[in-house]
Amino acid sequence: MFKGIRGRLVTTYILLAITAIALVEGVMAEWVWQYYIGNIKEVLIQQAQLADNFFKNYMENSDLIYVAQDISEDFAQVSNAEVQVTNNSGVVLGDSIGNFRYVETQDIIDAKKGGLGVFQGDYFDTGENVMAVSSPLLKGGKVVGMIRFVTSLNGVEDVMHRVMVLFTEVGIAVVAIVAMVGIFISGTLTRPLKEITEAAREISGGDFTVRLNKRYDDEVGTLAETLNQTAIELGKLDTMKNDFISSVSHEIRTPLTSIKGWAVTLKEDSDEELMEKGLDIIEKETDRLTALVNRLLDFSRLESGNMSLAVSPVDIKNLIISTADQIRPRAQRQGITLDVDADDIPAIKGDINKLKQVLINILDNSLKFTDEGGRIRIYAEKTPDKVRIVIEDTGRGIPEGDLEHITEKFYTAQAKGSGSGLGLAISRELIELHGGTMSIKSRPGEGTSVMIELPA
């Protein structure tokens, strides 16, 4: 009827219901049976004891063979049972219904020994299920015979049959109700799961606009919310990836176009001055391509977890000064003041080349977005357990909407004129690889401050 989780749930509900009902009804049926049988047994025992006392008090001196039939008939009038009187050998001397067949059942055997005997089994004549209770008849303290009360259990069996029919009908009704409830409950679980599965299939196919309604405030509802958030994040990543591809394509196409154009020009014109200018431009554009390719390689290594650090003692002061000296000519060409303030700071453990790459990436951004006449400051300071490097500029700043995403992979801020969107993302991951943190504060029109904290 059902497949998958719904089928298993409904089947489980039904099996549990059947097991519970069978157990409860079995216990109740046994209790009812024992209740009726116990009452019948108690009545027969009382009648047998009463007959024994009557014989002892009033007929002890009579010869049993002569009074047996009278005793059986008299007691049959006050009992619904068949009453038999036997001698010690089990020969029936009196029977209320005229059945004088020899009796040797367990109740007779027990009564011969002077105790009260009880028997339940098939009646020798009709084969019906009966219960018999026998009590010894004493004369002078000796057993001279037995009085036996026999009753059919057919009535009890009929009652038990009706009870079992009723139990079965109730059980079927309960199982049917459980099945319907199970189908409903399992549907509340499987329907959202089917929607989630379908949504996941659409998302895996590239449709990140899919959204799910949270039907219930439970684990399945949480799963739907999680999938919605995943779709949103994947949509953002997809948009950033497309922007990144577009940006990288532009970054690659521009120097390639320049290189191609100058190569054609130099091929057609051998003027020495023109050739020197063209080769200089080709060299610079090649350096741009090399830097871009290196960033892509770094990004690939970071994403695959294959980026390793060549750890050694790093002099922070020398690192800052050498990086600033490398950048200073460009700053001077752009008319930007570059200030360095680095006191003597104890060496830290790190990869000097990777840390220098981070500083160059950040300074490159500062130079790119700081206008002529602006200022860039880089300084370092020691805290009890960290070394802090700060790069501040008086540039254009970063819009608030871009600031929280500026270090995400593929993200290209709206304020950028060009770039791959990888520089700050790679820088942040390299710092984190060192066990440090990188944070950015900025206000549009006032400038940007990048703070790097590394374990001391």
Question: How large is the count of helical segments?
Answer: 10
Any low-confidence stretches, pLDDT <50, length ≥5? 414-418
Please indicate the percent range of residues in DSSP E strands (runs of 2 or more): 15-25%
What gross morphology would you assign?
A: rod-shaped
Oligomer: single chain
> Care to count the β-strands?
12
The helicity comes to: 55-70%
Q: Report the structural category.
A: alpha+beta
Task: Output the strand order for the largest sheet.
Answer: 2-1-5-4-3
Q: Distance between termini?
A: 67 Å
- Name the average pLDDT: 83
Order of helices and strands: HHEEHEEEHHHEHEEHEEHHEE
Largest sheet: 5 strands, antiparallel
Radius of gyration: 51 Å
Please specify the SSE layout and strand pairing:
Elements: H1 4-58, H2 64-76, E1 82-87, E2 92-95, H3 106-112, E3 117-122, E4 129-139, E5 142-152, H4 154-204, H5 219-268, H6 272-304, E6 312-314, H7 316-333, E7 337-342, E8 348-350, H8 352-368, E9 375-382, E10 386-393, H9 400-403, H10 423-433, E11 437-443, E12 447-455
Parallel strand pairs: 7-9
Antiparallel strand pairs: 1-2, 1-5, 3-4, 4-5, 6-8, 9-10, 10-12, 11-12
Helix pairs in contact: 1-4, 4-5, 5-6, 6-10, 7-8, 8-10
What is the gist of this entry?
With 456 residues, this protein is α+β, with helices and mostly antiparallel strands. The chain has helices at residues 4-58, 64-76, 106-112, 154-204, 219-268, 272-304, 316-333, 352-368, 400-403, 423-433; strands spanning 82-87, 92-95, 117-122, 129-139, 142-152, 312-314, 337-342, 348-350, 375-382, 386-393, 437-443, 447-455. Helix 6 crosses helix 10 (423-433) and helix 7 runs parallel beside helix 8.
